[in-house]
Amino acid sequence: MNLRAEKVLKFLESKFLYVHLNWVEETLHQIDVSLNDKQLEQQIIQYLLNSDIKKSLTFQSCLPADIFDKHNQVLPGPYCLQIIHVQDIGISIFNQLEYLEQFDESGTIKSYNVIWNNLSDIDDDEILDTDKPASKKFCKLLLEDSSGLCVWAIEHKPIKHIHIGINLGTKILLKNILVLRGVLILNPSNITFLGGQIFELNKNYFPSGLKNQLKSALYNMNI
């Protein structure tokens, strides 16, 4: 192991990120050798956050293999996982589809005029009715560890960064996580958002792919 790779491994381990040596060495070949240590750390973190952890992280980052048998237990962690699916089970599918109408195919919020035209067929009383209770976000996530093990997690308390438009492949770090019947219980105190994504998962996903998923779910509910 060369000195540069050794420094990178120690830096990542200090962040509770346990990375394969060969991934580090391959990634270093893509990074400018003239970067100082701080710049190198920033670059390597970015590469890691946009990687698939099944290729980059070691089994030291994995959840317990018997996670589905655990109930009412707190796992100390830390575990670095990636988000591969998000459902909002606190808002109706119909309301989620309405929410997605404000985005164009690139995922950018449409201009005011476009949104207003889309609302032109809605009765004014519906638009101005402020007495309707606000929907409460309550998300269910499918998380994946570096072994490919997938587990469900739900919000116990609202978490700012979790929403249906989140980048798939976003990396998170979990510590002191409560497990109930094999499901991870999330709250702001036990989750750290690292960011990133897996580009392949997000291709054609938001908003069109997500709309199609929701429409399919709505159709299946009505069968």
TrEMBL record:
This is RecQ-mediated genome instability protein 1. InterPro entries: RMI1_N (IPR049363), RMI1_N_C_sf (IPR042470), RMI1_OB (IPR013894). It comes from the Eukaryota. PANTHER family: RECQ-MEDIATED GENOME INSTABILITY PROTEIN 1 (PTHR14790:SF15), RECQ-MEDIATED GENOME INSTABILITY PROTEIN 1 RMI1 (PTHR14790). It comes from Pneumocystis murina (strain B123) (Mouse pneumocystis pneumonia agent). GO terms for biological process: double-strand break repair via homologous recombination; resolution of meiotic recombination intermediates. Residues 63-206 form the RecQ mediated genome instability protein 1 OB-fold domain. Pfam families: RMI1_N_C, RMI1_N_N. One of its GO terms (cellular component) is RecQ family helicase-topoisomerase III complex. Residues 12-56 form the RMI1 N-terminal domain. Belongs to the RMI1 family.
